[in-house]
Amino acid sequence: MEINTENVEDLVSKDYEHGFVTDIDTDTVAPGLNEETIAFISKKKEEPEWLLEWRLKAYRHWLTMEDPTWAHLDIEHIDYQAISYYSAPKSKDDAPKSLDEVDPKLLETYEKLGIPLQEQKFLAGVAVDAVFDSVSVATTFKGKLADAGVIFCPFSEAVKEHPELVKKYLGSVVPAADNFFGALNSAVFTDGSFVYIPKGVRCPMELSTYFRINASNTGQFERTLIIADEKSHVSYLEGCTAPMRDENQLHAAVVELVALEDAEIKYSTVQNWYPGDENGVGGIYNFVTKRADCRGNNSKVSWTQVETGSAITWKYPSCILKGDNSVGEFYSVAVTNNHQQADTGTKMIHIGKNTSSTIISKGISARHAQQSYRGLVKISKSAENARNYTQCDSLLMGDQCGAHTFPYIEAKNSSATVEHEATTSKIGDDQLFYCMQRGIKEEDAVNMIVNGFCKEVFKELPMEFAVEAQKLLGITLEGAVG
Amino acid sequence: MLNIQDLHAKIGNKEILKGLNLSVNAGEVHAIMGPNGSGKSTLANVLAGRNGYDVTKGTVEYEGKDLLELAPEERAWAGVFLAFQYPVEIPGVNNVYLLKAAVNAVRKYRGQTELDAVEFLGLIKEKMKIVKMKEDLLNRSVNEGFSGGEKKRNEIFQMSVLEPKLAILDETDSGLDIDALKIVSEGVNSLRNEERSIILVTHYQRLLDYIKPDHVHVLSNGKIIKSGGPDLALELEEKGYDWIKEEAA
Ligand SMILES: Nc1ncnc2c1ncn2[C@@H]1O[C@H](COP(=O)(O)OP(=O)(O)OP(=O)(O)O)[C@@H](O)[C@H]1O
Ligand SMILES: [Mg+2]
């Protein structure tokens, strides 16, 4: 069934709900990137010599690299010298010991975003390590986690308190020279989260970080490192929104996950950065390197992501399945609307014996949006009896958007089983009419159908996140069909 | 209850309804019969407010209101129900979930409190018996993978839960086996009362053996060309449509 494109037009014209700017006095370094900028960042963060060296090495390598051009994206040239590489809320010098000490403006910002820290503290049983611009300013639930021996802190704090762990694992999954944006991040990353779950520990609560970009003209370079030691278990949640901006903002995060023997990491993301206005002006550029190393036997990593924001998303959470019987999973919902572009997918690299991976990707495009799924399943020679199941479904709303699927399979071991299924469908007029005839409003009907389409992914999310994700989808697609 | 006057409707440039008149009082059951392609489903869709139909002339009055002014969901809230000739599959959307959303949308419109999960389950437990609805169908995606008969039964089940004032059943009998026809008909009969009107679109007399209509109409080439009592259906069964077409010509 055809969808009426005129109605599509007014459907999608819903303003970004979180588009406001908090007036906070930031302490921002002048735009530009050179070895001095890096030294400045490193000094600001009181880093040890080895880390500065590590950054500089990454930077020197980055200088030899070129912007990737192979993704199915249309990107304006980014002037890396026009970006400011450090920005921190003023209050960071005398870092707050509790929420009471946190800048009330900042708390207000979270309030507006619907992330009331205060409430979360009591209600959700979620520890929050909130990142505002480049420095973490509020950390809760430290005590309970400390009792379990879990380390959950800002990355910069981990560098000071747990240098041996950072030194051992930093860059061990995503080497500094890995890719253009990864190298850039390695050179200039400012903060992020650090998690270590000791042997045999099941993390007593879900760990959560909310990211938010604020200061003008500042690229944000998060660095996250999560280590699950033998027989441990952790579920980590990441969610983000950003205020309205005129110029494009660069975001290039690196997330490294290490799962040792019998360990399990569940990493869930809800991403809702400013996508730009209806004409695509002013959105966030989101270039993320996320990779998990299933280093130990029987280890398991699941990536679950709900991507609704950003002007451009370039993101392939991946799993390196080194340990025998290790398991990698990727569950993704990506929504693109207006002029949003997304090139996302995953890589599953099978190295160990009996390794298995599952990929469920749900792409939704509306209006002029373009979306690509790019997946690589690689079965190495050593990967006896590896198994992969891939399912890529695309849902189109309107007839000016596009969905593209690029599944790559490299199998070097003949005992492998690799299955791939793909579908493309449109939200049908007849489906909408059926719901409306039963008394359900069009918008609610769209929501219902889209949520139905995404069900297999949403069920992988922790409960409160799933609810948030459904809401987000509703906001993003409001007005997208007629 | 329903008064259709000189209704003309087009799909694209093609005129399908060409001056249709029909009046239905509260509590009545009207059967509409007629050759394939004569416009029966078009009439049902126009009454339910489906997109893509252009009403060029005529009026439809429903309970004193101009029905054509209302959005499809508003018509549903006002008690108009269409049992689809081809019920639509909606993958991933749970059958009960859709029905609960529908019930609560109507209740909200009427200023009633929304039913919670427990109350709703209580309600549908009762209604399931009416059409002997299989429990596992409730928890599957809306119509997905349902057999033809199961889909039709699901429509009548939804009707029994939504308790409409005007129900339009578009060939609900086709695709039903003999036993199912009986069960569904009994279900429809149990929903008959003085306030509820039913328009039955059908090709076959056998449905009318179970659901006795008050009036029978023949729709041909976009118009009602003959109306009568239950006997008219019997006559049609015997003689087909040609004689009426000739009579009308
Ligand atoms: N979307 C459409 N585009 C063009 N013509 C259409 C469309 N939908 C219906 N028609 C035409 O309108 C006419 C009436 O169709 P309608 O479905 O109302 O018939 P019907 O009386 O319900 O027939 P049946 O007994 O086969 O169900 C047919 O000639 C059909 O081909
Ligand atoms: Mg029909």
Keywords:
heterodimer; A: 482 residues; alpha/beta; 10-stranded mixed sheet; disordered N terminus; B: alpha/beta; 6-stranded mixed sheet; 40% helix; globular; binds adenosine-5'-triphosphate; binds magnesium ion
Architecture overview:
- The complex is a heterodimer of chains A (482) and B (249).
- Chain A is of the alpha/beta class and 482 residues long.
- Chain A contains twelve helices and 23 strands.
- In chain A, α7 crosses α8 and α11 crosses α12 (463-477).
- The longest helix of chain A is centred in the C-terminal third of the chain and has 17 residues, at 442-458.
- The N and C termini of chain A lie close together (12 Å).
- The model of chain A is unreliable at 1-25, 90-96, 118-140, 210-218 and 241-246 (pLDDT under 50).
- In chain B, strands 6-9-10-3-11-12 form a six-stranded mixed beta sheet, with helices on both faces. Chain B has a four-stranded antiparallel beta sheet with strand order 2-1-4-5.
- In chain B, α6 runs parallel beside α7 (178-190).
- Chain B has ten helices and twelve strands.
- Chain B is of the alpha/beta class.
- Chain A binds chain B through residues 4, 428-431, 433-442, 444, 448-449, 451-455, and chain B through 48-52, 71-73, 75-77, 81-82, 84, 87-88, 90-94, 97-99, 101-102, 105-106, 109, 141-142, 158, 162.
- The structure holds adenosine-5'-triphosphate (ATP) and magnesium ion.
Topology:
The complex is a heterodimer of chains A (482) and B (249).
Chain A lengths: L4 H7 L14 E3 L6 H10 L4 H15 L23 E3 L14 H9 L4 H6 L3 E7 L2 E5 L2 H6 L3 E4 H7 L1 H7 L10 H9 L4 E5 L8 E7 L10 E6 L4 E9 L7 E3 L2 E6 L4 E9 L11 E11 L5 E8 L4 E4 L2 E4 L5 E10 L4 E10 L5 E11 L3 E10 L7 E11 L4 E10 L5 E10 L2 H9 L4 H17 L4 H15 L5
Parallel strand pairs in A: 3-7, 6-8, 7-9, 8-11, 9-12, 10-13, 11-13, 12-14, 13-15, 13-16, 14-17, 15-18, 16-18, 17-19, 18-20, 19-21, 20-22, 21-23
Antiparallel strand pairs in A: 1-2, 3-4, 5-6
Helix pairs in contact in A: 2-3, 3-9, 7-8, 10-11, 11-12
Chain B lengths: L1 E10 L2 E11 L4 E5 L6 H9 L4 E10 L2 E2 L5 H6 L2 E4 L6 E5 H15 L7 H14 L4 H4 L2 E2 L5 H15 L3 E5 L7 H13 L6 E5 L3 H6 L4 E6 L2 E6 L1 H10 L2 H7 L1
Parallel strand pairs in B: 3-10, 3-11, 6-9, 9-10
Antiparallel strand pairs in B: 1-2, 1-4, 4-5, 7-8, 11-12
The complex binds adenosine-5'-triphosphate (ATP) and magnesium ion.
Magnesium ion binds next to helix 1 of chain B.
